[in-house]
Each structure stands twice: as C-alpha cells, then as structure tokens.
Amino acid sequence: MAFFYGLSQVFSRYLKELDVKFTNAFMGLIGFIILIIISQLFEGNVIHQLVNIDISGWIAVLYAGAIISIFGHMMMFYLYKFYPVGMVLPFYALFPVFGLLLIFLIFREIPTLIMVTGGIIVITSVFLLNKTR
Fold first, then answer.
1. pLDDT grade, residue 95 (50/70/90)?
2. 111-123 burial, b if ≥16 CB within 10 A, otherwise e?
3. CA–CA separation, 69 and 67 (whole Å)
4. Which of 51, 72, 77, 103 is most buried (most C-beta within 10 Å)?
5. 94: helix, strand or coil
6. DSSP letter at 66?
7. 132 in helix, strand or coil?
8. What is the pLDDT of residues 98-117, one digit of tens each?
9. What b-and-e string marks burial along 92-102, b requiring 16 or more CB atoms within 10 Å of the CB?
10. Residue 127, Cα to own-chain centre: how many angstroms?
11. Of 20, 2, 10, which Cα lies nearest the Cα of 87?
12. Residues 21, 73: Cα–Cα separation, whole Å
C-alpha cells in the first residue's frame, strides 16, 4: 500500500495543469468507492452502520474529512505546481501532527504519550530530511 501511495504522489506531480479542486474531488471519490467496497467485504452492512452514526460521529467525520483532509490535500496539489514531489512530501508528513494539534485545541483533548511520541518522531524526521538537502 505504501508503494502505491508513493507512486500516486509521484504521478500527482504530472497533473499540475489540472485544478486542485478537481484533483482532490476525484481522489476523494475514488477513495470513497474503494473503501465502501472494502468495508462491505470485511465489516458487512455498511448502510446500516452509516445510518446509525450519531451527531458527534458526523461532526468528527466532517472535521477530519472536510476541514483537515480537504485543506491538506488541496495545499499539497497546489504546491506540486511549483515544487518537486521530494520537496513537498516531507511536509505532507506533518499532516497528522497538525490534525492532532487542532483536535487538542478545538475539542480540548489531552494528548497521550503515544501521540506525543509519534508527533516528535514525525517532526524530527521532516527536520532531518530537510537538513540533509
């Protein structure tokens, strides 16, 4: 899976002439269809599970999907127009760190030791990748 993700990022660079909103919408639609099929195969009865999500669940989905993901992906595709993939992708690794920071700020969640450790590892790796260039 990591191989195909990396491959998709490299090929995304060649789509720089396309509008970032179109690229993001296409990526989201294809991902949604694939994940619905996989979810149906492994979990079963996806429609029943979607119908029974409560309001707090939908707010979390809206926040994570619409606000964080859309903004992050659109910025990434926009930056591909001006910079090579190798320069953009390390900063894209910070995506989950900023997502967690916003969750802590908005929902007043207290970070666990594992979350802080993961954030430190990601930030350190991005720093070291950019320092070597």
1. confident
2. eeeebeeebeebe
3. 6
4. 77
5. coil
6. I
7. coil
8. 777 877 887 788 888 998 89
9. bebbebebbee
10. 20
11. 10
12. 9
Token pair of 39, please? 């979810």
Q: What are the boundaries of each domain within the chain?
A: 1-83, 93-133
Q: Residue 13: what are its φ and ψ, rounded to 5°?
A: -60, -35
pLDDT tens, residue by residue, 23-76:
777 777 888 888 889 989 998 888 888 888 888 888 877 877 777 677 777 787
Residue 21: exposed, middle, or buried by beta-carbon count in 10 A (0-12, 13-18, 19+)? exposed
Whose tokens are 């967690």? That residue is 100
Please give the Cα distance from 127 to 106 (Å, whole number): 27
75: left (phi over 0), alpha (psi -120 to 50) or beta: alpha
Q: Give phi and psi for 4, each to the nearest 5.
A: -70, -35
Return d(Cα 56, Cα 52) in angstroms, integer: 12
Between CA 32 and CA 40 the distance in angstroms is: 12
Type of residue found at 41? L
